[in-house]
Amino acid sequence: MTSLPGGSDQGGSTPERRQVCARCGTPADGPPPATWTCSVENGVREYFCDACSRENLRAIEGRLDSAWW
Description:
Structural class: alpha+beta
Largest sheet: 2 strands, antiparallel
Strand order of the largest sheet: 1-2
Radius of gyration: 14 Å
Number of helices: 2
Shape: globular
Mean pLDDT: 78
Number of domains: 1
Low-confidence stretches: none
Region (Disordered): 1-32
Order of helices and strands: EEHH
Strand content: 5-15%
Number of strands: 2
């Protein structure tokens, strides 16, 4: 059996993780809102809140790692 990235091969439910912005730590209620940016860096999925995404839009569009900005 295979699963999608970030998924689990184990049956049953997994506890709901509360997402936080990888840059400023702002929490999201439930899954990340549609206004947040998702980035995969070094195989790790990270989410950035809309405020951090707006502030760093140019670096994000330039595909610079978040460590750079």
